[in-house]
Automatic annotation (TrEMBL):
Transmembrane segments: none
DNA-binding listed as a keyword: yes
Name of a matching Pfam family: TetR_N
Organism of origin: Streptomyces levis
DNA-binding region ranges: 27-46
This protein's record includes keyword Cell membrane: no
PANTHER family: HTH-TYPE TRANSCRIPTIONAL REGULATOR YJDC, TRANSCRIPTIONAL REGULATORY PROTEIN
Keywords tagged on the record: DNA-binding, Transcription, Transcription regulation
InterPro entries given in the database record: Homeodomain-like_sf, HTH_TetR, Tet_transcr_reg_TetR-rel_C_sf
Protein's recorded name: TetR/AcrR family transcriptional regulator
SUPFAM superfamilies membership: Homeodomain-like (SSF46689), Tetracyclin repressor-like, C-terminal domain (SSF48498)
Length: 183
């Protein structure tokens, strides 16, 4: 197995395990067992578990933002694209195995102990905020609206993760609709 295949298998296993059970509950031996990558190779690819967590969050960030943008871009009209963010969140919250926001979860587990993981989480949140800022600007809304839309989305993510309900997405969507209309 070449390094790129081993890396992808390790990341696939890490994502399933870290997201499903939590980062601290999963050891490198668990990732080895789930991936079929030897422990020696796993440590060659990721010299520390922290590096594997960073890589998992980075790869998930790329996919998450690409999927969100693809969904939103299918909508016509700037204001409709803003509301589509919350529609997409509702679809995400309804996926089997949804356990809340991977970055919030990782930050809650490791943020105080791991500067690299905290920075990876901050980079994801910063990129999401910038995306919402760009949607608000495209709609001709005041600059502050992007941050308010971000807080609505983040609140929906936390609430959905805790309650196991998709309802926070529609509630945040309605609040965003009122905010956009008022702005």
């Amino acid at each position: 197995m070449d390094s790129s295949v081993a890396r992808e298998r390790a990341l696939d296993a890490a994502e399933e395990l870290f997201y499903g059970r939590g980062v601290q509950a999963v050891g490198m031996d668990d990732v080895r067992s789930a991936s079929g990558v030897s422990l020696k190779r796993l440590y060659q690819l990721f010299p520390a578990k922290e590096r594997l967590v960073e890589a998992y969050l980075e790869r998930r960030d790329t996919r998450w933002r690409e999927q969100l943008a693809a969904y939103v871009e299918e909508r016509h009209g700037a204001r409709e694209r803003i509301l589509a963010v919350y529609d997409w969140l509702g679809r995400w919250f309804d996926e089997p195995g949804f356990r809340g926001c991977a970055w919030i979860n990782a930050y809650g587990e490791l943020g105080a102990m791991s500067t690299p993981v905290a920075e990876r989480v901050r980079a994801h949140k910063r990129a999401f905020r910038e995306y919402l800022d760009s949607l608000a600007a495209e709609a001709g809304l005041p600059a502050a609206v992007g941050g308010q839309l971000f807080l609505l989305a983040e609140g929906a993510m936390v609430t959905a993760g805790i309650t196991g309900s998709v309802k926070p997405a529609s509630e945040a969507r309605e609040a965003a609709r009122l905010l956009v209309r008022a702005a």
